[in-house]
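Take a look at the protein record below with the fold in mind.
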Amino acid sequence: MSEAIRPDAHSQAQEGPELSVIVPTFNERDNVTVLYRRLEATLPNVAWEVVFVDDNSPDGTWDVVRELAQKDSRVRCIRRIGRRGLSGACIEGILASSAPYAAVIDADLQHDETQLPKMLLLLASDKADLVVGSRYIEGYKSEGFNKQRAGASALATEVARKMLRVEIADPMSGFFMVRRDRFEQLAPKLSVHGFKILLDLVATAHGTLRAVEIPYTFGARQHGESKLDSMVALDFLGLVLAKLTNDIVSLRFILFAMVGGIGLVVHLTTLFIALRLIKVPFAEAQAAGAIVAMTTNFILNNFLTYRDQRLKGFAILRGLIMFYIVCSVGLLANVGVAFSVYDQEPIWWLAGMAGALMGVVWNYAMSGLFVWRKK
């Protein structure tokens, strides 16, 4: 480590931190103190701060961080209420930091914090704008990455690299360090939804970030459970589609539309079962299909599209009723636009697409206003 990034205690106090470590957390109370101590041991000659961005963890992670902050001014806590999501947490944390370099590291202790000095040196010596802890270059070791998760990550990496023309080997990594000034230039175009902040960052930069990848050891999780679930696949696909449209269409709208597509399959499946297997009249079968599809869409949107505003408790019932109303009006808008287009140009598929687009736009706009409205 060069002397340029090893200030003495007096200069640290005067000049402020050189490195901000951003740690998004949710139910990680058993890990934050361990991570803090590891950062202390790893960065003895670096002026650093750590910003824990906690999504109002039910286990009180934010309270543990606050106790640490009372003892060490280098520790900060951003407690987010009514907002969820790793990408949004990372963006808020980096923008709230004060150092010229910002690292993102998970709180689950699986990322190798001993690589932080090397990453900092690469940035401070102006050899890169972005340094990525990569799982796909020589020297990487894994102690806690199961085969199923590794396979899914490799597939997503290949899709991202080919469809978005991302050059780095591991755009799905959650361990990286970036120049704060470069991040701020790109931040307005980043999505606050989803999990893959690095992929979003690199895709948004369109090759303008000088990136260096270094290997690291991926450790085994010691406490808690992984926050990744089956919905992450749909979340990832939505992000890829958003970037393919150059962010003209938002990630949230794409996820909403994708959920709507799933709802169409559910509707047709229910209609088939009701008509052919249960033998009910068409009107009742169609109504059953619509109700099942709307209910499915509501559940998926609540857990994926609006995960940062997820409804809980009694609010779920209220939200479901409002969603039924919104979608019913959306259906009328769908049919109205379809008939209007068909009258002018009698092409059935064009009219159908126009009506469907009107329906999804209406449902998306009204759902944001009345179902998952921000408090």
In short: The mean pLDDT is 84. The first strand starts at residue 19 and ends at 25.
